Amino acid sequence: MEIIEKIKTNKSDDDLTEIQKICLHKLQSSPLPNPKSELWRLSNKSKLSTFLDYSVNKKDSKFDIPYPKNSQSTIRLIIGENFQINLIEKDYSIQQLSQDELQKYVKEQISFFKPNENWSDLLNLSLSCKNNILGLKINGSKIPPIEIFSHASSNSLNAKTLVIFLEKNCEIELLQVNLGKENSSLSQSTFFCLKENSSVNHGVVSYGENRSNLLNSLNVIQQKNSAYNLGSLHFKFNYARFEISIKQSAGNAKTNIKGMQITKKDEQISTYTKIEFNGPNGFLDQINKSLADDKSHAIFEGSIIVPKIAQRTDASQLSRNLLLSNLAQIDTKPQLEIIADDVKCKHGATISQLNEEELFYMRTRGITLTEASKLQLSSYFQEIISFIPISKDKWDLLDKLLNEN
Amino acid sequence: MVNENLVKDVVKEPYKYGFVTDIETEKIEKGLNEDIIKLISQKKEEPKFLLDFRLKAFKKWQKMKEPDWAALGYKKIDYQDIIYYSAPKQKEKISSLDEVDPKLLETFDKLGIPLTEQKKLTNVAVDAVFDSVSIATTFREELAEHGVIFCSISEAVKNHADLIEKYLGTVVPASDNYFAALNSAVFSDGSFVYIPKGVTCPMDLSSYFRINSGDSGQFERTLIIAEESSSVSYLEGCTAPMFDTNTLHAAVVELIALDDASIKYSTVQNWYAGDEEGIGGIFNFVTKRGKCLGKRSKISWSQVETGSAITWKYPSCLLLGEESIGEFYSVALTNNLQQADTGTKMIHIGAKTKSTIVSKGISAGKSKNSYRGLVKMGTKATGSRNYSQCDSMLIGDQASANTFPYIKSQQPNSEIEHEASTCRISEDQLFYLQSRGIEFEEAVSMMVSGFCRDVFNQLPMEFAAEADKLLALKLEGSVG
Predict the structure, then answer these.
(1) How far is it, in rounded angstroms, from Cα B342 to Cα B337?
(2) CA closest to A351 among chain B residues
(3) Which residues have CB under 8 Å from A68's CB, separation 6+?
(4) Smallest Cα–Cα separation from A293: which of A360, A395, A380?
(5) B225 contacts: CB under 8 Å, gap ≥ 6
(6) Mind listing the pLDDT tens digit for each residue in A130-147?
(7) B402 touches chain A (CB under 8 A)
(8) Do the Cβ atoms of B368 and B339 come closer than 8 Å?
(9) Is residue B403 within 8 angstroms of chain A, CB to CB?
(10) What's chain B's Rg over C-alpha atoms?
(11) Pairing assessment for the beta strands A213-222 and B368-377 based on DSSP bridges
């Protein structure tokens, strides 16, 4: 674990950026997350250490996007490819953030970070060099859909960071794709700032190849009257963690989250979400689905925090889980912390297997058990996949899930 | 809008059990060490196995750390500043109730607990525990006719040592947690119930706990064993005087149900909760656990938690026997600066086991009320089911309600369902009731009682009526 040693010895190279130095310093007191803390208790320690075992990759190999471009109008960006973005069209503009803007924002975020709670972000920012940070400022209207790729090269630990400012009254569709190559580790941190009246349909699709690992964290700040819709899908990772933190900074905002994780073999994929309402009239609708098969382990922990100021918050959270094998394991822990009294909050959780009555019904109609299970699963998956913007058709996600799994 | 001041005026009923009984007590010096434990054991003339059990627990406790994961904040407890044994001074041996200090009887009379056997109206056998010592157990003879043993645990240690040795610490091991270890080391008394094979206990059993001294902790231990095809309903009530200091109460309750046996354990907890400023009150750290050892056995917990400055309590069921059933029905009400972190654990180990959790939390004033629960399906729990429902009601904008349900499954052929909601007293409903001529306070109390109905339905009748009244009293003045 070269990186942990480096943090411990506090050897700071001169070519490190200020942010990298701050993060390294923050991590110094506890270079590894506390395995007893609620957030890391269930995380597989040996898998985490495999994640950290690869040496840090500073220069990417050439990356070919494995999917055809949907239409000419889609904008495609790859984090780590050294380019300058400065798109100024009649209706909209997509510009790269200046170093100052980027530093200022990220530094402000870091000031709230705690070593254990935000370990993934601190690790990411202390590793991610200038080339691997992409900062964008998006403004205007009629913005074409955007696809952003992050990938990890084999036998290395890769850190990529994405910072997006969505200016007032802006609406975008954004698909973020994280690809893990064989025997690789990817640390991806995304910072999203939604200004007033902006709205985003955000898709996060992460999938790996053999023995790939992922630490994916997403920090969203929503200003008044903004709408944030997130559809996420994580599968085929030896070890993956998806940490979502959403803050409705002044309330009056809408958040919709539909996420899914699918684990097979001995994989472990977990999702941790923390939604904070810092103003009145907030809205949240969240559903998280897990499917665990073989000897795998799926984890969901979601917390909703409603302080006194957040009156008239309407939040609901649902965790639905399918456990398909005797050796698989599912842990789920929804959490509500409420101080405001005029709120509507509810949550639910279920763990079960495929519905036997439905299976029986289909089989009496001459559908084989395999086909019937597939049909059931496809409806289970479809709810989430249909929520992921743009390329959902082209990517054949449903096919991928049904046939590869 | 509901008139907030009115609401605040409604909950100010003083704590009516806050008197102190002036009675001579025998106390040992403050502090905790091996000598103190030996002294307690010696005073109680205990056999060696029990002293060893205590000393072992003490050693483990010394190595443990006080848990800090609960959503509770309280000042550090100085375990050396507590008296671990305090008992009313009385004659060496009591052969009948007439010999009990009349002042003690008066105390229990004041609390509305019938200790004299003439008061057969309620048909409840009572074991009264005053500070650390059980002072009287009623209806013994009638129970003995059925073979039921109902006595204080100290007596059981003397008369039924084999049962104690066999079962004590089998459900809650001494090393289970910090407070259970402390209790195992210093427990002074409590109740013991043994229901023989095939017997349905002819009456409800009840124990009544009263803390009287301000500086002594109460560490009682309850052990209930239900043999094959037997059944029992057990009630527990608690009160304490008002002191400015915090008193520690760390109890352990162990239930064991064998094949086809059923145990119903109901609690109305009304320890002194401290004043409006949060001064004084009982720290209630309790470990309650039942083991459904036999096939088709059933353990049902129902509780109404209204007192204590701090409550830390998770009555649990270990469902080992095939088709065994665990139930948990709870109402937890917090007001002023009270804090409660309570819930349950249902551990499904055997096949076709079932559990139901219904928890209702009401937080008023500046209080903090958390539900924390665990439902676990083990690898062998095929065909098992769990249903949990936890609802919270917030009264006033300074109270907080948290829910931390934890669900873990390793068995695909099992089903877990959980739902939770948070709401407040709806203004529409209040308006409706008021427009029908129902007073504001009564309307609130009706709604709270409706909110808790699922749980009250599970309580024994006398308790249900008491619980309803208690809730109404506790809430007076806090609704807004």
Answers:
(1) 16
(2) B416
(3) A394
(4) A380
(5) B163, B167, B193, B194, B195, B256, B258
(6) 888 999 999 988 899 998
(7) yes
(8) yes
(9) yes
(10) 22
(11) unpaired
* Listed residue (A248, A385, A237) closest to A299, CA to CA: A237
Please give the residue that has the higher pLDDT: either A129 or B59: B59
Q: Is A378 exposed, middle or buried (0-12, 13-18, 19+ CB in 10 A)?
A: middle
Write the CA distances from A7 to A3, A27, A37, A200, B203, integer angstroms.
6, 7, 21, 36, 68
Interchain contact B426–A (C-beta under 8 A) = no
Q: Would an 8 Å CB–CB cutoff place B406 in contact with chain A?
A: yes
Residue A14 in this model has a pLDDT that exceeds 50: yes
Q: Which two tokens stand for residue A131?
A: 């080339």
- SS3 state of residue A404: helix
Asked if B103 and B23 count as a contact pair (C-beta separation under 8 A), the reply is yes
pTM of the predicted structure, to 2 decimals: 0.85
Diameter of chain A measured on Cα atoms: 71
Alpha carbon distance B80, B350 (integer Å): 42
List pLDDT tens digits, range A233-275.
Answer: 999 999 999 999 999 999 899 999 999 999 999 999 999 999 9
Q: How far is CA A186 from CA A23, A114, A127, A220, A294, in A?
A: 18, 21, 11, 20, 24
Place B456 in a pLDDT band, splitting at 50, 70 and 90.
confident
Cα→Cα distances A197→A154, A388, A400, Å: 41, 21, 36
- In eight-state DSSP terms, residue B307 is -
CA–CA distance, B313 with A228 (Å, rounded to integer): 39
At B186, is the secondary structure helix, strand, or coil? Answer: helix
Taking alpha carbons only, the member of B107, B139, B133, B99 closest to residue B120 is B139
Radius of gyration of chain A (CA): 21
ipTM of the complex: 0.81
Instruction: In whole angstroms, give the CA distance from residue A305 to residue B333.
Output: 21
Q: Quick count: other Cβ atoms within 10 Å of Cβ A160?
A: 26
| B67 part of contact set with chain A, CB < 8 Å | no
Q: B252: which 2 tokens?
A: 């352990």
CA distance to B129, B250, B254, per residue, from B282 (Å) = 16, 10, 22
DSSP state of B185: H
Contact B89, B151 (CB under 8 A): no
Three-state secondary structure of B192-226:
EEEECCCCECCCEEEEEEECCCCCECECEEEEEEE
Give chain A's contact residues with B (Cβ, < 8 Å). Answer: 38, 308, 311, 321, 323-326, 328-353
Both tokens assigned to A381: 């998956």
Measured CA distances, A247 to A59, A224, A308, B257 (Å) = 34, 11, 15, 49
Residue among A216, A23, A4 nearest A113 (CA) = A23
Instruction: Determine contact, residues B112/B247, Cβ cutoff 8 Å.
Output: no
What mean pLDDT is predicted for residues A44-68? 80
Q: Is B267 exposed, middle or buried (0-12, 13-18, 19+ CB in 10 A)?
A: buried
Closest C-alpha to B451, from B413, B370, B395: B395
Please list every residue in chain B whose beta carbon sits closer than 8 Å to the beta carbon of residue A351: 377, 407, 409, 414-416
Show Cβ contacts of residue B397 under 8 Å, excluding neighbours closer than 6 positions.
A308, A311, A339, A340, A341, A342, B480
- Residue count (chain A): 405
Q: Of B298, B377, B394, B390, which Cα lies nearest the Cα of B342?
A: B390
As a whole number, mean pLDDT of residues A315-339 equals 92
CB within 8 Å: B408 and A324: no
Nearest CA to B163 out of B132, B193, B123 is that of B193
